[in-house]
Design brief:
Pfam families (chains A, B): NUDIX (PF00293), WHD_NrtR (PF21906)
Number of strands of chain A: 9
Largest interface: A-B, 45 and 45 residues
CATH class of the largest domain in chain A: Alpha Beta
Strand content of chain A: 15-25%
Keywords (chains A, B): Hydrolase
GO molecular function, one term (chains A, B): hydrolase activity
Mean pLDDT of chain A: 89
Order of helices and strands of chain A: HEEEEHEEEHHHEE
Shape of chain A: elongated
Protein name (chains A, B): 8-oxo-dGTP diphosphatase
Low-confidence stretches of chain A: 1-7
Structural class of chain A: alpha+beta
Oligomer: homodimer
Chain lengths: 250, 250
DNA sequence: AGAATAGTGTCTTTGAGACATTATTTC
DNA sequence: GAAATAATGTCTCAAAGACACTATTCT
């Protein structure tokens, strides 16, 4: 390639025809269950199947594309509400097997999004056919989205151990009990309340007290819990390791 | 899009013009130092700068593209030697900021490769300008490759803690001391020999004895060490955590 | 009153790490 | 012989987890 062709950029015949999309695994907790945002596909291929929200990358960064797709599918716009400001978005991994889309070569950069509590997608908008589904009921998705979802869940479960990710699922002020329910929902197993409580408070920078107390006690009784907000730690040290299960080790 | 246009695939005007490449962060240990494979760029942009090996994705999976690029740049071909069979390849993350390549929108899927000891790239081949560079001397790389390398190193350092990755840097039979030198090279700090030894042997499935003993003792004296091979564990439990440094926590 | 929950105390076991020690080998 | 290294032993401290217990609030 000489100087002239450099200035002109690549020649389209120099590289294979590929399209790049983003797909978003958006997770939230509703009624104590971990849920993922899915859309109903109206067109071929996989018409009638459910899929992860996503679309072509435009003139924007990949992160911006993911946040934009999430906003469009949930019916939220960056200017109408600051709800989206509190959504945690991170890249998951990229899926590009030839044939994963029957129409053409599509390379999809998958993203994970964690939200405290997004409203139900508004009917009448672009998001008319989007809704939250408990992750254990999200099966038979279009394309390779079953795999993407599985990878996203594994990543989320891992990150709960080493990072304060769980605070992304609760409000700005929360009780230790609420935090524990996040862990229980994502990991799919109950945690010992007393040990969890002491453990969370012992990790520097995980949570800090607001000085406030919850307005009322638990639904079925119990004292009013103290309120906390997220601390400034980026990694939990020591980590909150999952209950050891030998079958996860090999 | 109706059924006819589905059968015809996407129309090129429906999606932005993008090219997809793979870039490979290939790591090995030479003379006790962690090294990365770099190529000298002969053309604009960044002519004369060093860069990570990479190229356009062809009609292949992304993993295959990464392994193919690595083979081409090192001058090894999958059929000439089984050396490449022992290379660990895994996806790192994807870089796609507009403007990261001045010529056009390029989305690059970065890969990590771990090799025990690849030969010096052969002159006269495509790999004529490729060579191994200690990672702390790999600076001012082309494009955003400084960032990609930094991300790759961070990933490698993390994976040493929780996985048997270190065994990918040594031969099929190795001593505990060799394994410790891998950790020291990647983490950039010495480890206590006695504690490391006991720790490695205490992790189920990390290493298993071959029953053999090294042909001779250390270079400057000492008994002949026992030989081990990689075990069947996929995760280390308990993990080999890095020496705690407070500045890594927040 | 009865039940559920928040928060704390205590004990045991495991593991990390500092340090010491012995045996073996090279120069 | 001197120095380095492999491998193991010992001790201390931190942390995980099981369990118990008290105080508070809801129905």
């Amino acid at each position: 390639m000489d100087e002239a062709s450099f200035l002109a950029g690549y020649n389209p015949r120099d590289y294979p025809a590929v399209a790049v999309t983003v797909d978003v695994v958006a997770l939230t907790i509703r009624d104590g269950r971990l849920c993922v945002l899915l859309v109903e596909r109206g067109q071929q291929p996989f018409a009638g199947h459910r899929a992860l929200p996503g679309g072509f990358v435009r003139d924007e960064t990949l992160d911006e594309a993911a946040l934009r797709e999430l906003a469009e599918e949930t019916g939220l716009t960056p200017d109408t509400g600051d709800v989206l400001d509190r959504v945690h978005v991170e890249q998951l991994r990229t899926y590009g097997d030839p044939g994963r889309d029957p129409r053409m070569r599509i390379v999809s950069v998958a993203y994970l999004a964690f939200a405290p509590h997004l409203p139900e997608p508004v009917a009448g908008s672009d998001a008319a056919r989007a809704y939250w589904v408990p992750v254990d009921e999200a099966k038979d998705l279009a394309f390779d989205h079953d795999q993407i979802l599985a990878d996203g869940l594994e990543r989320a479960r891992d990150k709960l151990e080493y990072t304060p990710l769980a605070t992304a699922f609760v409000g700005t002020a929360f009780t230790i009990s609420e935090l524990r329910q996040v862990y229980a929902a994502v990991w799919g197993e109950e945690l010992h309340a007393g040990n969890f409580h002491r453990k969370v408070l012992s990790v520097p920078g995980f949570v800090e007290s607001t000085g406030e107390t919850a307005a009322r006690g638990g639904e079925r009784g119990g004292p009013r819990a103290r309120l906390y907000r997220a601390g400034d730690a980026r990694l939990l040290h020591p980590a909150l390791l999952r209950p050891t299960r030998e079958d996860r080790i090999r």
